[in-house]
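Inverse folding, one chain.
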C-alpha cells in the first residue's frame, strides 16, 4: 500500500499529510466555523490520544510524510501537549489553534518539547481588533498578539492563518505588515477564503468548494475518515457525510485503502485552484 500512496502523491491525486481532528470542543464560537464548535457544543467528538498516536505511527509506515492536527481547539484537551510530543517524535506536525489558551503553565510544557519537529498555526483575520473579533470572538485579537511573542520566545515555530470574508486588500496588506513585525515571515502566513460548510453555510458565508479546490488529504475524526480537512463539517449539530470515505479509522491501512480507491477516480495532476490548507 505504501507504493500506491507514493504513486498517488506523485501523480497529484493526494497529499502526503495525514489530518486528525482532535476534538470539536472549543472556547470560541467563530461565525464561520466548519464544525459548529463552541464552549457549549453538545457532542465534542474527541479523538482519543492513544488513537491519534497509533494512527500517526501507522501513517509513517504507510508512507505519509507529515501530520496536521485541528479541531475545535486542540488545547481544550488537557493532555494534548503530551500527545503532541508523542506524535512529533514520529512525524513532523502542524497544529491549528486559535491562540487564546496559552497560560504560563501550558507555555512551559510546550517549551520543553520545542526541539521536536512541530509548529503552531494560529488564526488571525484582521489587523483591526474589532474586525477580527467580530468574526472570532471578544478579545481574540488581544490574546493572539499576547501569545505570539511568548511562543516565539520559547523557540516554538509559529505560523499565521487568515480566513478571508470581505476583508479589503489594504486590510490584508496591513495584516501582513503586522505579522512581519511580530517575527512571522510571509512564507508562514496562509490566506484562504471562508468555506461554505458548517456554520458558514448556515450564515450564508464563504465559497462553495469545487472539485479541484482542495487537494485530497486523508482526514481522521472520531466518526470516520474523510476526503480532506474541510470535509468532516457539522451543520445543525449533524456531521456532513457527503465526503466520508470510511467509518472505520483503525487500522489506518483499511481507511487508506478506501481513500486511495476514491482518489484514483480523480484527475491526475489536478491543480488546486485555491490555496486551502
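Residues assigned per position:
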Amino acid at each position: 500500500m505504501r507504493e500506491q500512496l507514493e504513486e498517488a502523491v506523485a501523480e497529484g491525486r493526494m497529499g502526503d499529510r495525514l489530518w486528525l481532528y482532535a476534538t470539536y470542543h472549543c472556547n470560541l464560537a467563530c461565525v464561520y466555523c466548519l464544525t459548529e464548535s463552541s464552549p457549549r457544543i453538545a457532542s465534542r467528538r474527541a479523538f482519543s490520544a492513544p488513537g491519534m498516536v497509533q494512527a500517526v505511527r501507522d501513517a509513517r509506515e504507510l508512507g505519509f510524510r507529515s501530520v496536521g492536527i485541528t479541531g475545535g481547539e486542540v488545547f481544550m484537551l488537557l493532555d494534548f501537549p503530551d500527545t503532541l510530543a508523542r506524535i512529533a517524535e514520529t512525524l513532523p506536525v502542524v497544529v491549528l489553534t486559535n491562540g487564546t489558551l496559552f497560560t504560563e503553565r501550558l507555555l512551559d510544557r510546550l517549551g520543553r518539547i520545542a526541539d521536536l519537529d512541530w509548529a503552531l498555526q494560529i488564526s488571525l483575520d484582521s489587523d483591526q481588533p474589532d474586525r477580527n473579533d467580530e468574526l472570532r470572538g471578544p478579545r481574540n485579537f488581544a490574546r493572539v498578539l499576547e501569545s505570539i511573542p511568548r511562543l516565539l520566545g520559547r523557540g516554538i515555530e509559529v505560523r499565521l492563518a487568515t480566513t478571508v470574508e470581505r476583508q479589503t486588500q489594504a486590510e490584508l496588506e496591513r495584516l501582513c505588515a503586522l505579522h512581519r513585525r511580530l517575527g512571522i515571515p510571509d512564507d508562514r502566513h496562509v490566506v484562504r477564503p471562508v468555506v461554505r460548510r458548517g456554520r458558514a453555510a448556515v450564515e450564508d458565508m464563504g465559497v462553495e468548494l469545487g472539485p479541484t479546490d482542495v487537494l485530497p488529504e486523508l482526514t481522521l475524526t472520531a466518526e470516520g475518515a474523510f476526503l480532506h480537512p474541510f470535509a468532516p463539517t457539522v451543520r445543525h449539530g449533524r456531521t456532513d457525510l457527503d465526503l466520508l470515505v470510511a467509518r472505520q479509522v483503525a487500522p489506518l491501512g483499511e481507511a487508506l485503502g478506501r481513500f486511495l480507491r476514491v482518489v484514483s477516480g480523480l484527475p491526475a495532476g489536478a491543480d488546486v485552484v485555491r490555496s486551502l490548507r
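The domain at 2-263 is CATH 3.20.20.70 (TIM Barrel). The longest strand covers residues 157-164.
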